[in-house]
Amino acid sequence: MARRAFTISIPSEHHAEEADYMGMASGRNEDKFKKAGLTPVQAEYVDAPYVGECPMVLECQLIHTIEIGLHTQFVGEIKDVKVDQGVLRGDGLPDPEKVKPILYAPVFRSYFGLGKHIGEAFTIGKGI
Ligand SMILES: Cc1cc2nc3c(=O)[nH]c(=O)nc-3n(C[C@H](O)[C@H](O)[C@H](O)COP(=O)(O)O)c2cc1C
């Protein structure tokens, strides 16, 4: 909040254990990057670190904070999106099937993968 900046590092399935650990430990008590074997990298456009091993990273400037009771909601402006070369499609966009993001389902306290491509949006419903 002091630096008005944050990053979103999207872990792939390969780093689910490290991501879970990073959510349980606090940087106030230990060097959790080092313990998880992850690399903090200084962002290019905002004053915050991101996780070097994550295939996709968003650099964000903090625009608003909203107190919503138990939590503070952060609203950011995306200043840059970084994607590993190896997970790009031929057209230069990130391929979700290569990024393999992990999804958190709070009700089950579990992580899931993304699953297969189902169909094109604004298209597959046109036949009805
Ligand atoms: C599965 C999971 C989900 C979490 N969801 C949230 C959340 O929605 N909001 C939040 O503030 N913290 C959430 N946390 C806890 C934070 O990740 C945790 O407080 C943070 O990693 C503390 O690290 P820090 O002190 O280094 O910032 C979650 C943790 C885990 C493991």
Task: Summarize the structure in words.
14% of the residues lie in helices and 33% in strands. The chain is an alpha+beta fold. A three-stranded antiparallel β-sheet has the order 1-4-5, with no helix packed on it. A two-stranded antiparallel sheet has the order 2-3. The chain starts with a strand and ends in a 16-residue tail after the last strand. The structure holds flavin mononucleotide. The site of flavin mononucleotide has 9 residues, from helix 1.
Please tag this protein with its features.
alpha+beta, binds flavin mononucleotide, globular, single chain, two-stranded antiparallel sheet, 7 strands, about 130 residues, 3-stranded antiparallel beta sheet
Task: List the SSEs and their pairings.
Blueprint lengths: L4 E6 L5 H9 L7 H5 L3 E3 L6 E3 L4 E12 L4 E12 L12 H4 L3 E3 L4 E3 L16
The structure holds flavin mononucleotide.
